[in-house]
TrEMBL record:
This is Acyltransferase. The lineage of its organism: Bacteria, Bacillati, Actinomycetota, Actinomycetes, Mycobacteriales. InterPro entries: Acyl_transf_3_dom, Acyltransferase_3. PANTHER family: ACETYLTRANSFERASE (PTHR23028), ACYL_TRANSF_3 DOMAIN-CONTAINING PROTEIN (PTHR23028:SF53). GO terms for biological process: lipopolysaccharide biosynthetic process. One of its GO terms (molecular function) is acyltransferase activity, transferring groups other than amino-acyl groups. It holds the Pfam family Acyl_transf_3.
Length: 384
């Protein structure tokens, strides 16, 4: 009998811990920018903490695709599209809508937003509408991309059913490589619209997780053996991160200045995500991750969505508290208080909005006899 891999377990505590780390990585990169650490060596290193978004996308790709990978091998029934879409809406939209309304209403820089800004942000279409990424909500470009992936996933899964099992990994890998060429397409987009933030640009990051989902239901092979060499994976992550932080990947920040730099940065993001997530999901079932799998990290992972959607607003509150202005240093103080404020708000969001909404959905589905009242699956909790 083939050895079972860690990812065949329904819940992986270390994955929750990794989600918490990714959320904190996003906070670090934004705090570094707002405190003036956007140039020089430290600016490049702190700025590339934005590759935490690649980790988020890979986690989504893994957790949402693994049920389809199992179904393709006859290990589980095909996931119900209706339940999947309902769970995505309930997981993402309630807390997000609360954040948008509060931030656009109360945040000074977001006050007096136009109707276009309101509609684009409320519908998560801001990456497609020029000049609608607004203060306190600029990080939501990645959530807009992620939601597009959620919508496309059932279609991708349907197309994948036409492939033999042995053809699924090559097909996903080929699409991932093709997506790296997105930056070379001459779109001629109008001012204020950036095609490099559109979903196809980042498919390689989702594909990293999708490949892991395929391998987790495959016999033990070279991907598993590589993933279990933690030192090797650490070397891959560090090397890819340093390349992403170098001039090869462009200036610090989201948008590289050339197509080649975009390709390098995106490819390195995929490697970073693979190197961080693969050991967690392809390891042996008895492997333990004391830090990532600890109760505090799992709890932070549960609150990570709230940390992500509220941290820019929390950072805005920090500067008056310490009596400083943006781009004037004090990174340690700003980072510490931003993390604390973000965690506090995220805990409230989880308790008052996120968890009650998911519980309401489970009760409704139980009444409709479409979904048993089971413990929340890990893929039902995916969000940046």
């Amino acid at each position: 009998m083939d050895e079972q891999v860690g990812g065949t377990r329904s819940f992986l505590p270390a994955v929750e811990g990794m989600r918490a780390c990714a959320a904190l990585g996003v906070v670090v990169t934004h705090v570094a920018f707002e405190t003036g650490h956007s140039a020089g060596v430290d600016g490049r290193l702190f700025g590339r903490f934005d590759l935490a978004v690649a980790v988020f996308f890979a986690l989504s790709g893994f957790l949402l695709w693994r049920s389809h990978a199992a179904a393709a091998r006859g290990l589980a029934p095909r996931p119900a599209t209706g339940h999947y879409l309902r769970s995505r809406v309930v997981r993402i939209m309630p807390a997000y809508l609360v954040a948008v309304v509060v931030i656009l209403t109360l945040l000074p820089d977001g006050n007096h937003a136009s109707l276009t800004v309101w509609l684009a942000n409320l519908t998560l279409t801001q990456v497609y509408v020029p000049l609608t990424l607004t203060a306190g909500l600029t990080q939501m470009w990645s959530l807009s991309v992620e939601v597009s992936f959620y919508l496309a996933l059932p279609i991708l899964a349907m197309l994948a059913t036409r492939l033999p099992v042995r053809g699924r990994v090559p097909a996903i890998a080929a699409l991932a490589v093709a997506s790296l060429l997105w930056g070379w397409i001459p779109f001629g987009a109008p001012p204020g619209l950036n095609p490099l933030t559109w979903p196809p640009a980042f498919f390689s990051w989702f594909a990293a997780g999708m490949l892991l989902a395929e391998w987790v239901h495959s016999p033990i092979g070279w991907p598993h053996r590589l993933a279990r060499h933690r030192v090797l994976m650490a070397v891959v992550v560090v090397a890819a991160y340093l390349v992403a932080a170098s001039p090869l990947a462009g200036p610090p920040g989201l948008v590289p200045s050339s197509a080649a730099q975009f390709t390098v940065k995106t490819a390195m993001g995929a490697l970073v995500a693979l190197g961080l997530v693969a050991p967690l999901v392809l390891d042996r079932p008895d492997s333990s991750y004391r830090l990532l799998g600890s109760a505090p990290m799992v709890t932070l992972g549960r609150w990570s969505y709230g940390i992500f959607i509220w941290h820019l607003a929390a950072m805005t509150m920090v500067f008056p508290v310490i009596g400083q202005f943006s781009f004037n240093g004090h990174m340690v103080e700003v980072l510490t208080l931003t993390v604390l404020f973000s965690i506090a708000i995220a805990a409230v969001s989880y308790a008052l909005v996120e968890s009650p909404c998911r519980e309401a959905l489970r009760r409704w589905e139980k009444r409709e006899k479409k979904q048993p009242a089971a413990t929340l699956r890990q893929e039902d909790a995916i969000a940046p």
